[in-house]
User: Fold this.
Amino acid sequence: MDTLLTAEIAANSPRYRRRSSTFIDGVHDVPDEKASPMAPAQLYSTMSGRLFHSGRIAIVLVGLPARGKTHISVSLSRYLQWLGVKTRVFHLGDYRRATMGPDMEVPEDYFFINASATSVMLRQKILKKCREDIYAWLNHENGQVAIYDAVNPLASGRRSLAKEFQKHDVQTLFLESYVTDQNILEENARSVKISSPDFVGMDPDEAAKLYLKRIDMKIPHFETMNEPDLNYVKMINAGERLDYNNVSFGYLSTRIVFYLMNLHIKSRVTFFARAGTSSQEDSFKADAPLGDEGRAYAKKMADTLLAHREAERAAIIAAGGSPAPLKLLTVWTSTRKRTVETADYLKDIGYRVRQRSQMSQLNPGVCEKLSETAMRRLYPDEVERHELDPYHHRYPRAESYHDLAVRLEPIILELEREHNDLLIIAHESVLRVLYGYLMACDAMNIPKLKFPRNEIIEIIPASYQNEAKRIKIPDVHIDMIPGSPEDIRIPVPPSGFISPLSGLGTPAEPATPMSKVVPPSLLTPPGEKPQNPLSRD
Assistant:
């Protein structure tokens, strides 16, 4: 095997094994040696690094272009990584771009079934490189799941692939996305045309024609999954129906099927916003209502969000996009008073609001109102452990961020099921964990994420990754803006007070309220200690 293959691909393909930024998710990142050895929702570890008593699994995507294969493979990888399963996606298209380089044109018949000998040899060369990297991941990098994202159109080829993986003691699970709904096809084609590296810089109409030509050439030679001797799952019309053939499913394969039952490939946007502030003393037990400033903030936040959605739609129409009406907007809150009352303005003007008890904030335990001095005197060992691992450590009678992540798993699955655009109003601790899932953050960075009240965070899904940007809420009082402090070692200020810490790994901040994205400051000011509220927001 070419030992420089990975470096070559990383250098030539911007979307393969790249490092994420603060506003592009880390689902394709190479694991960082300094990162936490435990994933955010990982329940246990093993000597082998493989979980759920499962061996190595190759998930092989099947389907024509514009069927959402890449979206499915990336979403599945994000979920498995969140659980601690060592997973990597291998997009065959990335290998093609890396092998050919930026200056070499794709042969005219490269994607055709009846391609020339030169094109066939090129395809075999690219396929060989991808397979070698899959085996290196599973055999030498202790990987557990390899997701192979390619068309795999013929039954004979799929049987050969299963036999090849079996020789390497790798289980195979085929996953087909089968779409007959023309509306879904058109939506997926638009999404891929915009976000795929193949079409960067191309005229949109020409890109659409080229993409449809590729599909038309493959359709006559595509065979849908119907092999009785293979393990496969067939997602029909973006999750409308699921068929599967269970020859030898293990626990992890069954867990994957369960996740796929909650997944769909239709695009929708997720927004995160903080709850308004209270004029009363607020604590985990008190559950105070909104004050006057909090109610004013709730209206400003809602008006800003609605104006942003209309502006985005107008920009799409101006650029020649579809004039279709906006997707419906659903609002989720926790059951705590301030989050519920922050959503009342939207509820009053007709938006659907749902309360979710799992989205209650982190329980701070007995240390909620203790000063740092008192905590160091009463719980010196706890403070030391928390400093070493602020994600997994819990104070007496408290929750850790890991506990919160496990509690939020039903919310994550329902989030994947949601078809409408979604606004989540919650405590900052909850937003940190949900953002950490959607943006594939390392566990140790999740407690450091910052969500100031004068911003709404927008998570924009695309085929290859999720992206995030900030939407400024104008005229929010300065005392309401700061995010929560990031370490319970220091007394937690009442809701709405100033917190001096700038966040790490925070979503990118736009130069203008609703458009251009620039990275935030990632450094704590000299001489200031990190802070973190596990109670007040």
Q: What stands out?
A: The radius of gyration is 24 Å. Residues 1-22, 485-536 have pLDDT under 50 and may be disordered. Residues 371 and 491 are 5 Å apart (CA to CA).
